[in-house]
Specification:
ATP-binding, 938 residues, Serine Threonine Protein Phosphatase 5, Tetratricopeptide repeat, 5-stranded parallel β-sheet, 60% helix, mainly alpha, TPR-like_helical_dom_sf, Rossmann fold, two-stranded antiparallel sheet, globular, single chain, 44 helices, TPR repeat
């Protein structure tokens, strides 16, 4: 058999150009996909070879068929050699210190390690941020992750995070084997939807045509040409798959002979080519190749020798090109197809013996690879060892935060028909416990439901599994209705386990979720407290007390602060103080809703301290998203959109924890007249499934959507949303959450001519918030009364109510709400013939403009034009004729969003002809020929 060198890339000119272009125009996200042997890796290597030497860092990571619990291992593997491209540790983002334990090679150049986090979700978010910050510090770089089809869920989530908003100089390239052309979903999900300012490309590789197969064969054989009949036969037998073409040609004794291809056997099957190559090896070399096939992963010489049973043959296998050297002194097959072909040809008894030798060799290591041990034990038919190593591997993976691998291991064991029935129960319980702490949910939910359908669990074990399923559905899956239904069933099954039952009742008792009334939540909270009194568990007692304190503050109870003061903040036990940290973060969120911002700041400060101190820093993320809502309410709008969007991207896998962010983005869009964007954000904040989402935010989002419908003159839609939202609020009975809904709903009812319904709502709201510690709700009551009085044409009463609302909002402070109340007062005064109302409206237009509420400012200016008052507009800097005026900037922003002239006119209260004039001026000043070229002004 002739020795054939690897050829240059053949037949991929277009794909190579696309990939190289993406690599050199970061930020970029590229997926190279195709079936096994199609040439994905060779294409990537060719593109890397085109990059100027030293121009950018090339970081290579590999996913493996069998992997040990090393979370995000392929990415960490790629990062190990970046030390020479990093600035000093002092110049690095401090968050990169979280990588010290994962990248010991970089310990000397990374900042100090932060305190470990107890919550795996918190650790995950911080780790993702650290990796992105480190890649950003590297500068221009190409991160290549090979064989993404073997990646764990965590690595996929990390790559989604990186490609969602990559560092400026980073191009991420992943290769992925897609076996079925009917599989439409990308392995990185939304990562390959177009991201602004990011090159997003999918390069799909198809088999070579006959011409390219001939060119490849000529290159392999170093021939200028080959007979047409030979090339046609080669293309037919190999289906144009480059790797199979190469293997077939390497196996040819002589391409000149007409029947050469037929004598190779069945060329379409790679095993025939591998069998041909194996036949030319000595027994020792064949043994080394077979040992490598049994091990599946590239391995060191000592391990291959132990499995082969003798020390000779590895060198011969390498020289023959059957095995190849991999990084780190490891040896294995160049391609998984070759490994599988050799493995399938090993007789069954020989395979079993080889797996037994692999178990012995791997078990003797200082840190035995548990997943590999479990695999080899199963193949060796050693059930006891398989169960022992499999369970240990799952526990070890979960301890490292790699819950996805833990679930994968247990799934494989539970799915094995030979698993003894006596071992199914503990594995099912382990699976449910891991699931409740992980982030991935789709496969876990399916597995847990399958386990519950099987009739092998005892009643209390079934209850625990179901309780954890309910937690996963409620939290990770975001299906609160289904989750709470499962928890209710589980509580009946857990009648003999009060500790677990107390956790279930305390979870159900939180009033911000579900459709139950406040009275029902109070009953559930009391049940949890009664059960916890019978359990000797300080941590559980603290958890239930934390829920009680959160409960009281959520509803604006007068005793809320007294209950919060009883939380064991100084307890010596870390687990107890961790529950206090959770409570403080929940209380902070409630105080933002209630309008108690100074108190919220104090609880936030103490909550952060406790979170860091106890390693429960995940609640700190919730503090951040609540603070975004606080910034909106208190008028800190500068840079708020960017801050909100940055927080939102951290929650791609659990978007429900960021509902505050989507609400704020919706309200900002509403204030600027960006109707479509606002509607989309309000739905993401909870209006997509209001009965299953976080009720306080859903209620506020409904208020925003009602305002949007009213602004657009869609009065029927506004009324429908008001009726639905008020019904939800009435059913729940926590009226303090109506601060951001009731004034808008009153206006919607009034606009529809339903003044009595509006009056009844005001009266019901006043009764519902009476005695509650909720300044925002009481300010909103003045606002609602003003709207009702205006609808009844009691303009004097309306002016008074709006004035009291403005004063109350100013004290909170809520400057935007205060300006809205001021506008209501000014319009009421205008209706009374007050000559000073015009000046007030002019001043309000400026207040709205300073905040960034351009639509509100335009509405005020329109009111001034309607009464014939002069409306001065702020203009661009003098002396710069090409600068856009403020009005032109507003028009340019809406043009960049794709709005028509008619839509822009509606937002800015202008005539269509005036808008046409402004658009023409914008294009002229910016030197553009088409409105599609307009970018949003800075």
């Amino acid at each position: 058999m002739s020795s054939v060198p690897s050829p240059a890339l053949v037949g991929r000119i277009s794909e190579l150009r696309i990939l190289t272009d993406a690599m050199t125009h970061p930020p970029a996200a590229v997926l190279v996909e195709g079936e096994a042997g199609i040439g994905k890796t060779r294409l990537v290597r060719a593109a890397l070879g085109r990059l100027p030497a030293g121009d950018r860092a090339v970081l290579l990571g590999y996913c493996h068929q069998i992997r040990e619990p090393f979370p995000y291992g392929p990415v960490f593997e790629a990062l190990r050699d970046v030390a020479g491209r990093l600035p000093s540790a002092q110049a690095l983002n401090p968050v990169t210190g979280a990588l010290r334990g994962h990248l010991p090679e970089l310990a000397d150049v990374l900042p100090p390690s932060p305190q470990p986090l107890d919550d795996p979700r918190a650790e995950r978010h911080r780790l993702f941020r650290a990796i992105r910050a480190l890649l950003g510090a590297v500068g221009a770089a190409v991160l290549v992750i090979e064989d993404l089809h073997w990646a764990d869920d965590g690595t996929r989530d990390l790559l989604r995070f990186l490609t969602g908003q990559p560092p400026e100089g980073l191009a991420v390239v992943a290769t992925h084997r897609r076996e079925s052309q009917g599989t439409a979903r990308s392995p990185l999900g939304r990562a390959y939807r177009h991201q602004p300012d990011t090159t997003s490309v999918v390069v799909s590789l198809a088999p070579l045509d006959m011409t390219d197969v001939g060119n490849l064969a000529c290159a392999l054989l170093d021939r200028p040409d080959l007979p047409h009949e030979f090339v046609a036969r080669l293309h037919e037998r190999t289906a144009g798959i480059p790797f199979v073409v190469e293997e077939m040609v390497r196996s040819l004794p002589d391409a000149e002979e007409p029947d050469a291809l037929d004598r190779v056997g069945v060329p379409l099957l790679l095993r025939e080519a591998m069998a041909e190559r194996m036949a030319g090896l000595s027994a020792a070399a064949a043994g080394a190749v077979q040992a490598s096939a049994v091990l599946r992963l590239p391995a060191g010489e000592q391990l291959i020798t132990a499995v082969a049973g003798h020390s000779a043959g590895l060198g011969e296998a390498l020289r023959a090109g059957v095995l190849h050297e991999h990084p780190g002194g490891r040896y294995g097959f160049r391609h998984a197809l070759a490994q599988q072909a050799v493995y399938d040809a090993i007789p069954g008894p020989d395979r079993r013996s080889a797996h037994e030798r692999a178990m012995t060799a791997l078990g003797a290591m200082d840190s035995p690879p548990l997943v590999q041990l479990a695999f080899h034990a199963r193949q060796a038919e050693d059930t006891e060892a398989w169960l022992r190593h499999g369970a240990a591997a799952a526990r070890h993976a979960a301890a490292l935060g790699d819950t996805a691998l833990a679930v994968e291991v247990i799934e494989g064991m539970l799915g094995d028909p030979d698993l003894p029935a006596s071992h199914r129960v503990p594995l099912a319980l382990m699976l449910s416990r891991f699931a409740a702490t992980g982030l991935s949910h789709q496969r876990v939910v399916r597995l847990l439901r399958h386990v519950l359908r099987d009739d092998f669990l005892s009643r209390d074990a079934r209850g625990e599994v179901r309780l954890n399923l309910g937690v996963v559905l409620s939290n990770q899956a975001g299906d609160t209705a289904a989750g709470r239904a499962e928890i209710m069933v589980a509580l009946d099954e857990l009648s003999e386990r009060p500790t677990l039952a107390a956790r279930g009742w305390a979870l159900l008792a939180m009033p911000a979720w579900g459709t139950e009334s406040l009275a029902t939540h109070e009953e559930w909270m009391s049940r949890a407290e009664a059960l916890v009194a019978t359990a000797d568990s300080p941590e559980l007692a603290a958890a239930v007390l934390a829920n009680r304190a959160s409960f009281e503050m959520r509803i604006g109870s007068p005793r809320a602060f007294a209950v919060a003061a009883t939380l064991p903040v100084a307890d010596a036990r870390t687990a107890v103080r961790r529950q206090v940290a959770r409570a403080y973060c929940n209380i902070h969120d409630s105080l933002i809703t209630l309008g108690l911002y100074a108190e919220a700041a104090r609880f936030a400060q103490e909550g952060r301290r406790l979170a860091v101190e106890t390693g429960a820093q995940y609640p700190a993320y919730l503090l951040d998203v609540s603070a975004i809502r606080g910034d909106w309410l208190t008028g800190r709008w500068d840079g708020l959109r960017d801050r909100a969007a940055s927080l939102g991207e951290l929650a791609t896998e659990t978007p429900l924890i960021a509902v505050d962010v989507w609400l704020v983005l919706g309200l900002l869009a509403l204030a600027r007249g960006e109707w479509d964007e606002a509607t989309e954000h309000f739905h993401t904040a909870g209006l997509d499934a209001p009965d299953a989402r976080y009720v306080p935010i859903v209620t506020a989002a409904s208020g925003g959507l009602i305002d949007l419908r009213l602004a657009r003159g869609e009065f029927d839609a506004a009324l429908a949303e008001a009726e639905a939202a008020v019904a939800r609020l009435r059913r729940k009975g926590v009226w303090v959450w109506g601060a951001y809904l009731v004034p808008s709903a009153v206006t919607a009812f009034a606009c529809a001519g339903r003044v009595k319904a509006a009056a009844d709502l005001v009266a019901e709201y006043a009764h519902g918030i009476a005695g509650r510690v909720a300044p925002a709700a009481h300010a909103a009551l003045h606002m609602a009364r003003g709207a009702l009085a205006a609808a009844e044409r009691r303009h004097g009463d309306a002016a008074g109510c709006y004035a009291r609302a403005q004063q109350a909002y100013a004290v909170l402070p809520q400057p935007y709400a205060a300006a809205r109340a001021g506008e209501g007062e000014a319009r009421a005064r205008l209706a009374l013939g007050d000559g000073g109302a015009a000046a007030a409206i002019m001043e309000l237009a400026e207040r709205f403009a300073r905040l960034g509420a351009t639509h509100d400012a335009a509405r005020c200016r329109r009111a001034l034009r309607d009464i014939g008052a002069e409306v001065p507009l702020p203009r661009g800097r003098r002396g710069n004729a090409g600068a856009l005026s403020e009005r032109e900037k507003e028009v340019a922003r809406l043009v960049a969003l794709g709005r028509t002239n008619r839509e822009i006119a509606d937002v800015l209260f202008l005539s269509t002809r005036t808008v046409e004039s402004h658009v023409a001026t914008v294009l002229r000043k910016l030197g553009l020929r088409s409105r599609t070229q307009v970018a949003p002004p800075a």
